[in-house]
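Researcher: Here's my situation. A collaborator sent me these components and asked whether they could plausibly form a single complex. I don't have experimental data yet, so a predicted model of the whole assembly would be a useful starting point for our discussion.
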Amino acid sequence: MDVQVRGGDSLWSYSNTFNVPLPLIINSNPTINPSMLSIGQTIQIPGYRLQRYTILQGDTFYKIATRNRISIDGLFLVNPGVNPKELQIGQTVNIPKRITTTIINPRQNYDFKMLTADLEVLGQLYPFMRRRTIGHSVMGKDLIEIQIGNGDKIVHWNGAFHAYEWITTSVIMEFINTYLLALTNNETIRGRFMFPFYDQVTLSIVPMVDPDGVELVLNGPPDGSYGEEALQINGGSTDFSGWKANIRGVDLNNQFPANWEIEAERKPKQPAPRDFPGYAPLTEPESVAMAELAGELNFEKMLAFHTQGEVIYWGFENLEPPRAREIVNEFSRVSGYEPIRYVDSFAGYKDWFVQDFREPGFTVELGQGINPLPITQFDEIYQKTLGIFLASMYI
Ligand SMILES: [Zn+2]
């Protein structure tokens, strides 16, 4: 919601008027110098939207404010051209409405178009959530990174490294909306106030690492040469429900230079729906973008969300720091998922991250069943993952 600056206003006064934490207002207006507001300037207030209201007999601003549980100054702010002493029956005014529920619905087959549309909606309502493009998929789709928070501690999450594991994107998006809502409204999640997290942690999130692959699984092959190639790799079948790879048949989580040669030796030697590690490490734009992101940002910890198995892989070649054990034990306590230190698998993002940065990295396998997990498992998975999301910020 936008307001126009009046004489004497400050971001602090808006924080009081709308009862929204000041840093969220400051961060929602990154180009504004908070100590130099000018009259008429537009300021974005997160977590509110305007509702039109038609004046009835006997209405006053005081009554409208009381009835809507908002401050009368808030009402003045969003009705700059209205004289409250001369309200006319039938006249329409603005009412600032606090958003009190989540507004996106990721409990459905969640494709790239839904993701970008939802991020647009969330970005409008919660402008303190930062969005940027960290690269492009083979087919040119944006690889989107979201950042939330002001902390020095950067915690990174990613989802849908594997195409048919797109439910990880749904779960991440549900949390993002829930977190933005709790931050703006000063609410708790599982009994914890979220605002200290905002101050201490910067969340870096890539919700969909393989957007071309997710589209292929959910919507079938695209027109043109990439679609034809994918059909050929899939043995002519139009059933892509078993597809893990990117659009050209490279398994993105087998692409990283951490014993990549071992995987190359024993995995498919050419493009395939799953497990082909590429002809060399880091040949695919999606895996390159993820490697560059880890190089750019100093992740304090990294969580890659996959399905399925209800396990958390947390070691690599004894290179993981000692605190990785303590962290995974907390993840396990809050989710019931089983920690597994080593597994005969290499060249994953977690493996490479632990090897190159010696920071805690985790592959979290959500849910139980046969991939792709059906969306009907969403609520159960979300409840278990929620504990891990929160723990990744506080521990
Ligand atoms: Zn996976």
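Model: Some features of this prediction you could bring to your collaborator: The chain has a mean pLDDT of 97. The two ends are 34 Å apart (CA to CA).
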